[in-house]
Design goal:
- With 226 residues, this protein is an alpha+beta fold.
- The protein folds into two domains: 1-183, Jelly Rolls (Sandwich); 185-225, no CATH class.
- It contains four helices and ten strands, in the order αββββββββββααα.
- The protein has helices at 2-23, 187-192, 200-207, 211-218, and strands at residues 79-84, 98-104, 109-114, 120-126, 129-134, 142-147, 152-155, 160-164, 171-177, 185-186.
- It has a five-stranded antiparallel beta sheet, with no helix packed on it.
- α3 (200-207) crosses α4 (211-218).
- The chain starts with a helix and ends in an 8-residue tail after the last helix.
- Residues 65-215 form the Cupin type-1 domain.
Length: 226
């Protein structure tokens, strides 16, 4: 009887320990990378931003004004993103959420991109948008939908997605993101506009095209609509 109880306690302790390991993990990074240093005085980042003394906080730390203003869509892609992340609204620090307004000219595009640190939920206020995302390898399945005012669509974290205004009038959407600093990687900009450029040999092999095609693409100006 005593041995049975001991076995039960050992088994319970083992399960508790196993579950604690299963749920233990490092916090999600809030920037692209954070190189370790031995001298903390030489550090410039924590995972996120340094916190203000709560006694010194004011209402303005939690306030942002300007999302009523139309973004300038007079650019090659015909769209403009106005972000409200921790960089614009300090009170978002550690809260794991941010917001963006996206303006579209007729036939404007928010090009294929990813948010490495956030899921995005989009709601259309004006106009019509054709939106979609692609799943990861090897399926690479495309999910698309045409959205009208009041419609909502979700783009899972890290997946390539886009929004396109196929109408003859302007469109406006708002997006909520599950990170104070979601990050954005516009695919064409990253692949063909990196600094320094990716080797032509690498890209020609990856895209299975002639090197002249890569030379042409790398010579373009890849507009950042953020």
């Amino acid at each position: 009887m005593i041995m049975t109880r001991i076995h039960f306690l050992v088994a319970t302790a083992t399960l508790v320990f196993a579950f604690s390991l299963a749920y233990a993990s490092d916090p999600s990074p809030l920037q692209d990378f954070c190189v370790a240093i031995d001298d903390p005085k030489a550090g410039v980042f924590v995972n996120g931003k340094f916190c203000k003394d709560p006694k010194l906080a004011t209402a303005n730390d939690f306030f942002y004004s300007g999302l009523n203003i139309l973004g300038n869509t007079s650019n090659p892609v015909g769209s403009y993103v106005t972000p409200v992340s921790v960089a614009q609204l300090a009170g978002l620090n550690t809260l794991g959420i941010s917001l963006a307004r996206i303006d579209f000219a007729p036939y404007g595009l928010n090009p294929p991109h990813t948010h490495p640190r956030a899921t995005e939920i989009l709601v259309v206020l004006e106009g019509t948008l054709y939106v979609g995302f692609v799943t990861s390898n090897t399926d690479n399945k495309l999910f698309t939908k045409v959205l009208y005012p009041g419609d909502v669509f979700v783009f899972p974290e890290g997946l390539i997605h886009f929004q396109f205004n196929g109408g003859k009038s302007n469109a406006v959407a708002f997006a909520g993101l599950s990170s104070q600093n979601p990050g954005v990687i516009t695919i064409a900009n990253a692949v063909f506009g990196s600094k320094p450029p990716i080797s032509v040999d690498v890209l020609a092999k990856a895209f299975q095209v002639d090197k002249k095609v890569i030379d042409y693409l790398q010579a373009q100006f890849w507009w950042d609509n953020n």
